[in-house]
Specification:
It contains one helix and 57 strands. It has 671 residues and is mostly beta strands.
Amino acid sequence: MKARMTIYSGFLLILIFFNSHSIFSNQSNSERDIVEATYKSEINHMALYSAGMAAVITTQPASGAVTANDQIYLFVVATGTDLSYQWYKDAVAITGETHSSLSIPNCNTDDAGDYYVEITDNVPATVTSSTATITVNKINLTVTGQDYTYSYGDAIGAVEVIDIVYPAGTNASMFDVLPSASTLATNTSAVGPYAVTVAAGSSKVFNVTAVDGTLTINKAPLTATANNKSMVYGDAIPTYDITYNGFKNGNSSVDIDTEPTLTSTAAPTSNVGDYSITFATAGTDNNYNIIPVDGTVSITAAVLTATADDKSRVYGDEKPTFTITYSGFKNSETVADLTTEPVAYTAALLSSGVGTESIDVTGGVATNYSFNLVSGTLTITAAPLTVTGVDASREYGVANPTLSVSYSGFKNSDSETDFTVGNTPTVSSPATITSDVGTYNIVPAGGVLANYSISHVNGTLTISKAPLTATANDKSMVYGDAVPTYDLAYSGFRNGNSSADVDTEPTLTSTAAATSNVGDYAITFATAGTDNNYAITTVDGTVSVTAAVLTATADDKSRVYGDENPALTMTYSGFKNSETVADLITEPVAYTAAMLSSGVGTESIDVTGGVATNYSFNHVSGTLTITAAPLTVTGVDASREYGVANPTLSVSYSGFKNGETEAGFPAVNHP
C-alpha cells in the first residue's frame, strides 16, 4: 500500500490507494472490501474539499487480463462537484453503469473489450478516462469420447462423451452448444476400429480440447454345420453342403470371403453304414469367426428287385420251369455276388382250372441290398367250346321269340348243366322293335365254364310287316308370314319307329297363303306315301291364320321449357304384304301429359287405340325431352369516385318463362 499527498486550491487531500490498479480479479473478497471502503472514503473527503471545482481524474481505470468466470472490477477516482458517471464498452454506453466503479461477475469472452468512463461535473464539463483494455482468458477443459466394443452386426447405439469434470464454480450451462460425439460405424460396418469423434461444442468460458474415443467392432461367431446326407449303396456321392447359423445384416454364404470345404471317406463302393462329413478347410471371413460342426453321410442298402418271370400252360399240362429277372445291381455286380439267391415257386397243380396262379419269390441274402420280391403270373388257358344260335321267326313289331343255342366241344362228360347260375351263355339278336322287315342274326354270347374257351356261331331271325296311320298335324300361322311347313303325326309305329324310318313319306297341301285373311284352312294329302314295313292310312288336318302384331311406336320429341308441345307422331313396324297405315280401319293415337309448366326432364309419349282386320296392336311409348330455357344474367353498369368503396353491384335478367322471376333462385344458387 502506498500513500500520496495531493493539494487542490490550497487544500490538502491525502489519498490512499493500491498501486493505482482498478482490476481485482485475483484478490480476495476481504481485500476488495478494504479497497472499496478506502476508495469511497477518499471520494467523500475530496467532495468536502473540492466544491465548486472542475472534475479532475486522479486514478484511471487499468487494463488487464481475467480468467473466464471470474469478476471484472474497474474504478476511477476523480475530484469535482456533483459528479456523474457513464461507463462505455467498445464506445457503446453500458446501460445502468453510472457509478464510479464497474463490476462484471462471472465474466466470459463477450465481456472482453475496451472500457472507459465519462465524468460530468456541475460546471458543466465532461472529462473522459483513459481506455482500459480487458482480456478474458478461457478455462481449459478436456472432453473425451467414450470407448465402445461391439460384435459385427450388433445394433450400434448412440455414442457419447465421457462425463465431463468441470472446474469448481463452472458447469454445463456455460456451454452455448454442448460437446457431442459421433461415429461413422453402423450396424453393417465391417470388423475394425472406428473413431468416436468428439465435437467440441461452443462456449464463451471454456477452451475445449477434444479427444476422440474408439468404437471397436469384433468378429461375430458363425456356426458352419455340415448337413447330414443319405445315399443309396452304389449311387453317386451326394453334394455336401453347409448350413450357417449366425449371419448378420442379411449376409449369406455368398458373402463369406473363403467358404469352408467338406470331404468324406464315403464312396459309391462303400458298404452300408455311416461315414463322417468333415471340414477339409475351415474357411475364413473378415467379419465372422467360423465354427465348424461335422455331419454324417449314411449309406443305405440298395433295393434289388427280384421278379418272377410270367409263364403259361394249357389246362392239364405240366408246369414250366420258373426263372427270375433282377433289376437294381450296382457297381457291375451280378447274381453271383449275392450271399443267397431268391427262389421262385407256385401252388398250381395239374388239376388247377383255367385262370392265373401266382408265381411267388422268397428268400435272398446280400450285404448291400434289400430285396423287393415281385410275383409273376402262371396263366392256365382253356379248352375250346362252340355255342350256336338256333334259327327263329316273327312278325314286324312283335317282340322277339325266346331264342336258344346248341353246344359242341364238351370234354370229360361235361354238359350245359355244368354252367353255374349267371355263367350260362346268353343269346340275343340285333333285331329290335325298330328293325325293318328282313332277316337278322341270332347271336350267342358269353358263358363261363371252368377249363373251356367258348366260341359262338350265329343263327337267323326272320321279320314280316305292320299297319301305320298318318295324320296331318294342325298348324297355326301369323297373317302375312310364310305358310308353315306341314308335317305328319303317325300312329302305329312299332319298336320305336318314327317318320324318319318311313321309306317314302306322304306329302301335304293347303289353300292357305301368306295373303289369306285370318281364319281356318284344310290340310290335305297330295300323296299317300309308301314303306317296306307299314301300310299307311291318311287323315287330313287344319291350318289356322292368326292376326299379325303391328307395333305402333311414339316418336321421341323435344322442346324448350315453357314452349308448346310439338306435334306427336308415330312409327309403325310389322306391316305385312306391303300394307301401310292406310290399310288400318282405325289408326292409334299418340298423347302426353306434359304441360307448359312441366320442368326440365323427360315425359312419356304414350300410344292408345287402333283397329285392323289382320293385326293386333303393340303400343310402345316414346320420350318427350324438355330442355332448359336460356336465361341471360347481365351485370348492371355502375360508377364511383377514386378512393370510395364500390357501390352495391346488381344484375338484370332476360329469358324468364311462365311468369317466373329471380325470386325463384334458391339462396345458395343466386347469381
